[in-house]
Design a protein that fits this description.
Blueprint lengths: L1 E3 L28 H14 L3 E10 L2 E9 L6 H22 L7 E7 L9 H5 L5 E6 L2 E10 L3 E6 L2 E6 L7 E3 L7 H18 L1
Parallel strand pairs: 3-4
Antiparallel strand pairs: 1-4, 2-3, 5-6, 5-9, 6-7, 7-8
Helix pairs in contact: 1-2
């Protein structure tokens, strides 16, 4: 899911890009990722999300700002659109106030984190409880299901054996895609039992 923000018009300073006495164009100042992050992060947090990643690159004459967000309840398309508008407004305001934050044109892309990214922080594990993951735990590569997750570590189900593993002993986890999530099958069995009982009563 990606929401593209509007592209700002070029910031002019009288007559386009500055030129030196010899007619050569003066190179644009380098964009500071730290300055851009300082503008973007408070906006994302105030919207109720976490800033997972921010990248600034060049595409021709324009800058591309890619913002990745996540939340405990996921991120909806409306949420992405709201954050995109708020971040765009904040970047424009910061440019007007400070100048040279993002010289020239820029394009903003806001997207959700997605399940393909590695689990590296406690909140990543907490938000994926119930999922099957591949991870290095205490130096051993395993496939396990996340039963619970906290600030200190996670509870993993490895082939029916429950293990408590501290975050310090975990490598980056990779979510395994499944057609049926843990708990859904159990819920389906319960529904079947209820239907059978109703049939017997009839």
């Amino acid at each position: 899911m990606t929401q593209r923000g509007r592209t700002t018009p070029p910031r002019s300073s009288g007559g386009g890009r500055r030129q030196s006495a010899g007619g050569e164009r003066t190179p644009q100042p380098r964009v500071s990722k730290e300055r851009v992050t300082a503008v973007v992060q408070p906006v994302v947090v105030s919207a109720g999300y976490d800033l997972e990643d921010l990248a600034v690159s060049r595409a021709g004459r324009r800058h591309v700002v890619r913002v990745t967000i996540d939340g405990d309840r996921g991120v909806s398309l409306d949420g992405i659109a709201d954050v995109s508008r708020a971040v765009s407004a904040a970047l424009d305001a910061a440019e007007e106030a400070e100048g040279d934050l993002l010289p020239g044109e820029y394009e903003l892309e806001v997207s959700s984190r997605g399940v393909d990214r590695p689990l590296t922080l406690p909140r990543h594990w907490r938000r994926n409880v119930g999922r099957l993951v591949k991870v290095s735990a205490a130096g051993r590569q395993i496939t396990a299901r996340i039963k619970a997750a906290g600030d200190e570590g996670v509870t993993l189900d490895v082939d029916g054996t429950v293990q408590e593993v501290a975050h310090a002993d975990l490598g980056p986890g990779r979510v395994e895609l499944e057609f049926t999530r843990w708990g859904e099958v159990e819920g389906a069995d319960d529904e079947d039992d209820e239907i059978d009982e109703e049939d017997e009563e009839r």
